[in-house]
Write a structure and sequence with these properties.
By secondary structure, the protein is of the alpha/beta class. The protein contains ten helices and 14 strands.
């Protein structure tokens, strides 16, 4: 039987059109919603990018020179303040954001085999798609409390950690720079790591009619999983790509700029033109772990073999759940 967790309570539910589910399958649904609290949570979580743009434009074109310098100075200070993911206020804010963000859309977490996860094991989660922002990943955060894993970190573009205000909030939410050193360090310390393999490159291939997973050339996370003996877990989020409307410039120059700054500077907007995303139900599906033997020096052939297993598992997960969650006509492009 599958189970559904609502506000900390677990109750039986049917999971398929036939009403049949395995004993290890689990569905957890965020239900917490309050207009005021949810708006505050979403604004603090997702509004920093637009807020920084607003501050810069205001300082450059509206404010007198001395006030403009003051505003820009404050931004620089928040770019340089040392980050502390153990900050007590930050942890409370993170739990607040996770609670109301999961209930806003709402986000439903489907775990294909909950019994396959060991709380004492570090896993490498490969999360797709990136979309404008991979916001569905919030349901996997340790502060959301849905996954039976005590320590989880999300690897994010280094650009996040140079963005005032955003870097503080997202660090408290469990994000760390997506560097090889950080990846190894966190896995060695017992943290499960969530990586979005497609990254910036995937954003360059997005369209409005299909999902895209830029995976074929992304093998670094597979290599690290093999070298550390960490099981690989495919994850797919349905509905995330509809959370924002967006426009992206075309051309080689835009591609070069995106790669250089490790961020795709597209224009995106949500409800009423704000950074508050549209209220679209999301379904985050977590597949079964692919267990690996520790191999400190894997060959290219060995990496390709495991990578192929991961891509196949991702496609199988997508096809298995797309009809169940209401996206039966949605195609997936694996590039």
């Amino acid at each position: 039987m599958e189970i559904e967790k609502i506000n900390g309570e677990i109750t039986p539910v049917d999971s398929t059109s036939s009403g049949v589910a395995t004993a290890a399958e689990m569905k957890l649904v965020g239900k917490e919603y309050s207009l005021f609290n949810t708006t505050i949570a979403l604004a603090m979580w997702l509004g920093a990018i637009h807020f920084n743009v607003f501050l810069v434009l205001t300082a450059l074109f509206i404010l007198p020179a001395r006030f403009a310098l003051l505003v820009l100075g404050v931004q620089v200070v928040f770019m340089l303040i040392p980050l502390n993911d153990k900050n007590e206020f930050g942890r409370k804010l993170s739990r607040f954001i996770c609670k109301y963000a999961c209930g806003y859309f709402p986000i439903t977490l489907h775990v294909e085999d909950i019994k396959a996860f060991d709380p004492n094991q570090a896993y490498v989660f490969g999360y797709e798609p990136h979309s404008v922002l991979p916001i569905g990943v919030v349901v996997l955060a340790d502060h959301a409390g849905f996954m039976p894993l005590r320590k989880i970190k999300v690897l994010a573009s280094s650009a996040v950690f140079y963005t005032p205000f955003l870097r503080q909030v997202w660090t408290w939410l469990g994000l760390v720079p997506a560097s090889r050193k950080e990846f190894y360090s966190r896995l060695s310390a017992g943290y499960s790591c969530i990586v979005i393999p497609g990254g910036v490159q995937e954003m360059l291939h997005m369209d409005h009619h299909s999902e895209v997973a830029f995976l074929k050339s992304r093998k670094g996370f597979v290599r690290i999983a093999m070298e550390t003996g960490s099981p690989l877990v495919p994850v797919f989020c349905f509905g995330q790509s509809h959370a924002y409307k967006w426009w992206r410039p075309e051309g080689k120059i835009f591609v070069k700029i995106s790669r250089a700054i490790k961020f795709s500077p597209l224009i995106f907007w949500g409800r009423y033109g704000t950074p508050i995303p549209f209220r679209v139900p999301m379904h985050v599906v977590v597949g079964r772990p692919i267990h690996l033997k520790k191999n400190t020096e894997p060959t290219l052939d060995e990496i390709n073999e495991v990578h192929g297993q991961f891509v196949a598992a991702m496609e199988e997960l997508f096809n298995k759940y797309k009809t169940r969650v209401g996206y039966d006509k949605l195609p997936l492009r694996v590039l």
